[in-house]
Write a structure and sequence with these properties.
Number of domains: 2
Distance between the termini: 81 Å
CATH superfamily of the largest domain: Fructose-1,6-Bisphosphatase, subunit A, domain 1
Number of strands: 15
Number of helices: 9
Bound molecules: 2,5-anhydro-1,6-di-O-phosphono-D-mannitol, magnesium ion
CATH class of the largest domain: Alpha Beta
CATH architecture of the largest domain: 2-Layer Sandwich
Structural class: alpha+beta
CATH topology of the largest domain: Fructose-1,6-Bisphosphatase, Chain A, domain 1
Length: 351
């Protein structure tokens, strides 16, 4: 085993860095890693469902077969329930918070927000999908934990990570002291440290957004798109467009190569599409820890005060210089809009 460091070994080794509840957080991360391996196994044989039996049939444990996202949801909740370190799970798959009521869990110190299988449009067609998670400390000290314990700002995260089920399966996480990536070695069934101290380049030339929504984009995003498509050798433009439609896949690629991922507000999704608590905040924490920036177009994602469980946000995330430039254009347009509004009002008043 020389030269290989497993996720489990790494977590224990880094435990000394945690300023709080060392053992519990380590166990929580380990539980998420175990559930991810089970989900990975199912994602990998997704295409075999027609051969092995369609949804609705009974598997070997006597359970009905589920759609993969439902399956992933059950696996993560079950791992977090048996681990006993988490009192509430907030998941994309459930309308309300899931309270874990076992005698051990109900006094547990941690809250987990999770998107068990993100990239739903890619699930059935063999394209990368992911799991995104975020861990908070429970704030209330007595009684049962409530939704208020879940609605914390992203700056309060103690850990966050994602798993990408792609051409290989990786888990990438941060506890606020840098970002590390682990690749699943299927021959030994372990996540092994493969990407220590991940950092995102300050600049890049990849932009990722659903350009099909162009007509519905805010003016600042349209301006940024025009900028990235102009020919200019000095700044390496035009940039390259890469969009998988799986947030984890798109951001993971940009984290390694340098780039920007944007999901802005659109006419169809006036508050943005992606969810703050289990999509934007964890990815923002990871990207910031890797040296990048995450904004809603105007403000830092991690400082948005959540008011609802499934709250949405626009997101501009990735290489520092690219996000700063896009933010600048958003500000410029909205300033112009305000000037226009004021001017129109003035004219009306004068008129
Ligand atoms: P989901 O939670 O329903 O899977 O939606 C989230 C996904 C992201 O992974 C992805 O980046 C985005 O939605 C793609 O949306 P669109 O198809 O509108 O481009
Ligand atoms: Mg999702």
């Amino acid at each position: 085993m020389s030269g290989i460091k497993t996720l489990g070994q790494f977590i224990i080794e880094k435990q000394a860095d945690f300023s709080y509840a060392k053992g519990e957080l380590s166990r929580l991360l380990r539980d998420i890693g175990i559930a991810a391996k089970i989900v990975n196994r199912e994602v990998n044989k997704a295409g075999l469902v027609d051969i092995l039996g369609d949804a609705g049939t009974i598997n070997i444990q006597g359970e009905g077969q589920k759609k993969l996202d439902v399956f992933a949801n059950i696996q993560f909740i079950s791992a977090l329930t048996s681990g006993g370190e988490c009192c509430i799970v907030a998941t994309e798959e459930e309308d309300e918070i899931v309270r874990i009521d076992s005698p051990v869990s109900k006094n547990a110190k941690y809250i987990v927000c999770i998107d068990p299988l993100d990239g739903s449009s890619n699930i059935d067609c063999n394209v990368a999908v992911g799991t995104i998670f975020s861990i908070y400390r429970r704030q209330s000290v007595e009684g049962e934990a409530t939704l208020a314990d879940v609605l914390q700002k992203g700056t309060q995260q103690v850990a966050a990570g994602y798993v990408i089920y792609g051409s290989s399966t990786m888990m990438v996480y941060t506890t606020g002291k840098g970002v590390n990536g682990f690749t699943l070695d299927p021959s030994i069934g372990e996540f092994c440290l493969s990407h220590p101290n991940m950092t995102i380049p300050d600049g890049g030339n990849i932009y990722s957004l659903n350009e099909g929504n162009y007509v519905h984009f805010p003016e600042g995003v349209k301006k940024y798109l025009k900028y990235v498509q102009v020919h200019d050798e000095e700044t390496n433009r035009p940039y390259t467009s890469r969009y998988i439609g799986s947030m984890v896949g798109d951001i993971h690629r940009n984290l390694i190569k340098g780039g920007i991922y944007i999901y802005p507000t659109t006419a169809k999704s006036p508050n943005g599409k992606l969810r703050l608590l289990y999509e934007c905040n964890p990815m923002a924490f990871i990207v910031e820890q890797a040296g990048g920036v995450a904004s809603d177009g105007f403000n830092r994602i991690l400082e948005i005060e959540p008011t609802e469980l499934h709250q949405r946000s626009s997101i501009f995330i990735g290489s520092k210089e690219m996000v700063n430039m896009a933010e600048g254009m958003m500000a410029e347009f909205s300033a112009e809009k305000n000037v226009n509004t004021v001017t129109t009002q003035n004219l009306k008043q004068v008129g």
